[in-house]
């Protein structure tokens, strides 16, 4: 309970920080990025190519961080809608295949006849990208990243963390380094990271966990050191009636967490 409280307090702190700073900071980074790109395209001096490139990379990392912060912020409420999870998973797999290039093989699979889910598609996409980036980081020498989506019947045998009731299970699996039990037990804690300063924010899994909670789903992580990690995101099956006629104001479910 103490850990849960500490975690909630950290989330609260992130929320406050975000409200005040992240939005403005994001605009600032945008201006930096545009001007750096102008510099890059007009600059004839070879000696400046590397520093400009490094500045652009720093801006890139900064904007990833502010996006994570904004995802926590109350300014970015959940906008749930009926989502084609199979298409979304295929899209993320294609994106990762393009960006990961050679060393990591990307696979994806979706069961036919996936149940409908109500979720904010942008936040779900960001969650899957976060999981895929973690997978990539765990496979510096290559491996296989696999994204899967399937139905999960509510009466199936349950593991801790798996919500009851019918739902969708989205699996992101890698053949990477895996985690020690200590790292695994703290992995979803906000700001917990084992990555070097500037690379990891420690907010990726916390964000995915938060999305799972707010959507009435769950997150289960299994990991074996030296073998890989399997992250399963459960989302409740949408009630078809609710899908047909969402009640007024249903799109601003930003309160609960
Ligand atoms: P970040 O990626 O910024 O460090 P996360 O919350 O996404 O933040 O992850 C927290 C930590 O959990 C990571 O630093 C890493 O140690 C561990 N982790 C997360 N995903 C994986 C994975 N797929 N394989 C191995 N370790 C992982």
Automatic annotation (TrEMBL):
UniProt subcellular location: Cell membrane
Domain Histidine kinase: 20-239
Name of protein: histidine kinase
Organism: Azospirillum griseum
Lineage: Bacteria, Pseudomonadati, Pseudomonadota, Alphaproteobacteria, Rhodospirillales
């Amino acid at each position: 309970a103490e850990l849960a409280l500490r975690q909630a307090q950290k989330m609260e702190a992130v929320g406050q920080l975000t409200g005040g700073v992240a939005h403005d900071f994001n605009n600032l980074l945008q201006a930096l990025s545009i001007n750096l790109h102008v510099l890059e395209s007009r600059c004839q001096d070879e000696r400046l190519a590397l520093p400009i490139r490094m500045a652009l990379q720093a801006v890139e990392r900064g904007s990833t961080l502010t996006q994570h912060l904004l995802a926590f912020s109350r300014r970015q409420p959940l906008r749930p809608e009926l989502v084609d999870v199979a298409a979304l998973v295929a899209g993320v797999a294609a994106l990762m295949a393009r960006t990961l290039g050679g060393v990591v093989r990307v696979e994806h699979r979706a069961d036919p006849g996936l149940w409908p889910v109500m979720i904010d598609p942008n936040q779900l996409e960001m969650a899957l990208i976060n999981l895929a980036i973690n997978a990539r980081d765990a496979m510096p020498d290559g491996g296989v990243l696999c994204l899967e989506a399937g139905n999960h019947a509510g009466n199936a045998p349950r593991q801790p963390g798996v919500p009851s009731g019918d739902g969708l299970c989205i699996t992101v699996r890698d053949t990477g380094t895996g985690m020690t039990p200590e790292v695994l037990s703290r992995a979803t804690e906000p700001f917990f990271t084992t990555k070097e300063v500037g690379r990891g924010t420690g907010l990726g899994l916390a964000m995915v966990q938060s999305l799972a909670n707010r959507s009435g789903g769950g997150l289960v992580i299994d990991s074996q050191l030296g073998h890989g990690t399997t992250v399963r995101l459960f989302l409740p099956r949408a009630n078809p009636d609710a899908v047909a006629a969402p009640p007024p104001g249903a799109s601003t479910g930003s309160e609960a967490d």
